[in-house]
Amino acid sequence: MNAFETPVLEAKNIDKFFYNPTETQVLKKVSFTIKRGEFVSVVGKSGCGKSTLLYILSTMDTDYRGELSLDGELISGKSSDYLSKLRNEKIGFVFQFHYLLNEFSVLENVMIPGLKLGKYAREELEHRAIEKLRIFDMQDHAKKKANQLSGGQKQRVAIARALINDPLLIMGDEPTGNLDKKNSDIVYNKFKELAADFGQTMLIVTHDPEFAEGTDRIIEMEDGRVIRQ
Ligand SMILES: Nc1ncnc2c1ncn2[C@@H]1O[C@H](COP(=O)(O)OP(=O)(O)OP(=O)(O)O)[C@@H](O)[C@H]1O
């Protein structure tokens, strides 16, 4: 199997239980594969388990049953140090709230995951950060502090930040959830561009039916199960 055929992400029979105070199973035998270059959305009613699933897929929650592979490597059971390194190298995150650091400039914010990875020299990283900001038409704002931007601009910077290490996979939890229609459309169009122009693999949880309809594939969940994909 060559690198392009290796699935980016493979979930097999993922079960998740919470125990407070009684045992509840919130994910039930969730299985699917994300191929390279796919733009996939995860939808379903509130409480069906989308965020719980994303937390597991992103390697942040290791307390589950089943098997998870990233880029052909079985990662279930790996140590948290190992997973944290892998996450930084291979996954870019976009959340509902941008989590930019207000005391830092836009440029510095975009550079942060790159500094953590330690793969690029500072000058190269700055250059990369400008390039990523350019994709989102935010390069002219590079020197501003994050709190000088509008909500939509902050979210565009957050996506640029997610791209800084050229991740294998972008994962998003409601990336347009906190935006008005106009900004939500801008962010959505940027995701479409990333898929079309860069073949970026993306897995995005969304409540927005229009967003989901625009993706290559919709994974629909109900009561902890995948009911359609
Ligand atoms: N820490 C926890 N302890 C116990 N139950 C939890 C915990 N976190 C989530 N749950 C429960 O797990 C189920 C799935 O929650 P989850 O947040 O994954 O749903 P969701 O589909 O992302 O919902 P939303 O669309 O509202 O964000 C819900 O019934 C929720 O109450």
Automatic annotation (TrEMBL):
One GO molecular-function entry: ATP binding
This protein's UniProt keywords: ATP-binding, Nucleotide-binding, Translocase, Transport
Taxonomy, superkingdom: Bacteria
SMART domains for the chain: AAA (SM00382)
Family annotation (PROSITE patterns): ABC_TRANSPORTER_1, ABC_TRANSPORTER_2
Start and end residues of each ABC transporter domain: 9-229
PANTHER family according to UniProt: ALPHA-D-RIBOSE 1-METHYLPHOSPHONATE 5-TRIPHOSPHATE SYNTHASE SUBUNIT PHNL, LIPOPROTEIN-RELEASING SYSTEM ATP-BINDING PROTEIN LOLD
Similarity-based family: Belongs to the ABC transporter superfamily.
Protein name from the UniProt record: ABC transporter ATP-binding protein
Origin species: Algoriphagus aestuariicola
